[in-house]
Amino acid sequence: MRRAGGDAITVGAAFRHAVARLRQAHLHYGHGTHDARDEAAFLILHVLDLPPQSLAPHRRTRLSAPQAQRLQQLLTQRIRSRVPAAYLLHEAWLGEHRFYVDRRVIVPRSFIAELLRERLEPWVHRPVRRILDLCTGSGCLAILAAHAFSDARVDASDDSRAALAVAERNVTLHGMQRRVRLVHSDLFAALMRRRYDLILCNPPYVTAGRMRRLPTEYRHEPRRALAGGMDGLDIVRRILSDAPRHLTAQGVLVCEIGHNRPALERSYPQTPFLWPETSAGPDHVFLLERAEFPLRPAAPVPGTRARRRPAPRSGHPRARPANR
Ligand SMILES: C[S@@+](CC[C@H](N)C(=O)[O-])C[C@H]1O[C@@H](n2cnc3c(N)ncnc32)[C@H](O)[C@@H]1O
């Protein structure tokens, strides 16, 4: 990638070239970048060995010949293979935090990370001493929680040993070996009687219908990390049933569910879920205090009724309780 005449190309020109190639290829985004411009900036900053910040201050910088060549290689690989850029680069970012990734885990992009940036205020009750990150994958949420709550110890569990190997690498990368403990467990099974002030979970929640229509990029991620059964709530139902036994009296569950809010509210019509605002809107992550847990989901048998729960008692400012 050189100008006619042999001059090294500027970052600005490389950016325009990369955006044009990516647009022409009609790729899918959503693994840390939103569109061709985002993706081009991500690749160029990586090639320049810079964190994912604005490209603007570097527009006049010139790429060295090896950097320009590396950028071309990455663009070609991304376009031909449809592999998300994060896997090609083995890095993903949540805010200012970098995580190692490979195809043993999904590319980190949970909206719970946004809430952790604000230390889950005003939702959680202090002090937060014990945290569980269920379905930890790369360990990203467990590590962000450890950063956000500096007095807390975090258990991070997953039933995939391959994912836990990636999480271990990230725990070391962030120097969190003394505060984040990795546990191999089918949901709560290996956690004995431990109780937590905060349980975080970004479970598999893609519905069967959406799984069938997944763009190629998403098919490079572990299927087990995405597939949530017919209505996307298979794992969420198990969590709702078992979490109360693992929450302290003031404990809170924070769970991401993608587009499944209507299905969740149909299944648990009396449960006062809270819906904090994230960049995806007010529908993707719910919170539930221990005292508000459902006794059981709405019965699927016609004519039966779910037992009534008391009215929601929360007055959180940004909350949008269900069923109102
Ligand atoms: C959507 S990924 C979330 C990964 C990570 N927390 C994140 O936000 O990037 C879901 C994770 O759940 C794990 N998982 C699926 N079923 C599980 C189960 N029954 N018990 C424990 N972990 C499970 C998968 O291995 C995968 O790593």
Sequence of strands across the biggest β-sheet: 5-4-3-6-7-8
- Main sheet overview: 6 strands, mixed
Q: Determine the structural class based on helices, strands and strand pairing.
A: alpha/beta
For the record, the CATH architecture of the largest domain stands as 3-Layer(aba) Sandwich
Q: Give start-end ranges of low-pLDDT stretches.
A: 301-324
CATH fold annotation of the largest domain: Rossmann fold
Number of helices: 12
Give the beta-strand count: 8
Could you estimate the helical fraction of the residues in percent? 25-40%
- What is the rounded Rg? 22 Å
Could you tell me the strand content as a percent range? Answer: 5-15%
Order of helices and strands: HHHHEEHEHEHEEHHHHEHE
> Would you tell me the overall average pLDDT?
90
Compounds present? S-adenosylmethionine
